[in-house]
Amino acid sequence: MYTVAVIIILCYLLVVFFVFFNQRNLLYHPFENNYNKDEANFSYEEIFIPTSNGNNLKAWFHKKNLKQKKTLVFFHGNAGDLKNRIYKLNMIKDLDINFLIVAYRGFSGNKGEPTEDGLYQDARDTLDWLKKQKVRDDQILIYGESLGTAISVEVAQNKKFAGIILESPFTSMVDAGKHYYFYLPVSLLLKDRFETLSKLKNIRIPILVMHGKKDKIVPFHMGEKVFREANEPKFSYFPEYDDHMMEYNESLIKELDKFFKST
Fold first, then answer.
1. DSSP letter assigned to residue 201
2. Is 3 exposed, middle or buried, given 0-12, 13-18 or 19+ CB atoms closer than 10 A?
3. By residue range, what is the domain housing residue 199?
4. What is the dihedral of CA 51, 55, 61, 66, to 10 degrees?
């Protein structure tokens, strides 16, 4: 019995060490491509945004009119490259806005390795670059997808952007980690914590929270809690049957359009 207990403990410790040292490989999936067959039916300029660490971030810039129309800045999730979002951009392009979508370090061929602080800095450098294009804060709409919701909340704190959209948000990476690895001391092991919920009090601009009730990756109750804790003015879109990758259909686009026009 003693030997069995020792073996169980050793196996558990091996799992703990494996997860700790490989956690960023488990969190970030830059080479996963699910939507690479989609064809872009929007015009865009491929640009490379210089960063404070000397790298360049690949981005796509769809411009209608920077002076007269708001600009949506899209921060994507933890998997895949820019092409994975073409199916969304194909519909967003019909709205009366410009948009800029950027790939983080380590994604879409960019140099570097993703970390929480690194992704925050990439987002700030992107917004700094946009300001150099003479785009004011009150002309900017922030859009976060999944992991990108935590990045969006981080950079929108105490800012006067036109608004912020969170698609499939989570309360924190600690909470998400406990959901998947309930048998591990996640709070002690986790390096990249992405504490969204605690930062919401610093978001004082219009916010739209979108989350499918059938989300199998980020439980719907997390998105619901994010909405509940958000400051007014706040809006929600919670379709009954959408999964984590939400259905980009007329209903969702209508909600986005309504939100954009209200900001």
1. G
2. exposed
3. 2-262
4. 20
What's the CA gap between 77 and 87, in Å, rounded? Answer: 14
**In this predicted model, what pLDDT tens digit does every residue of 249-258 receive, in sequence order?**
999 999 999 9
Helix, strand, coil percent content, the chain, rounded in steps of 5: 40, 15, 40
Q: What is the CATH number of the domain that holds 125?
A: 3.40.50.1820
Answer whether 126's CB lies under 8 Å from 151's CB.
no
CA–CA separation, 35 and 194 (whole Å): 26
pTM of the model: 0.95
Lowest mean pLDDT among 11-20, 27-36, 98-107, 205-214: 27-36
Q: How confident is the model at residue 6 (pLDDT cuts 50, 70, 90)?
A: confident
Whether the Cβ atoms of residue 208 and residue 187 lie closer than 8 Å to each other? no
- Total structural domains in the chain? 1
User: Which of the four pLDDT bands, split at 50, 70 and 90, describes residue 85?
Assistant: very high
The Cα–Cα gap between 20 and 177 comes to 12
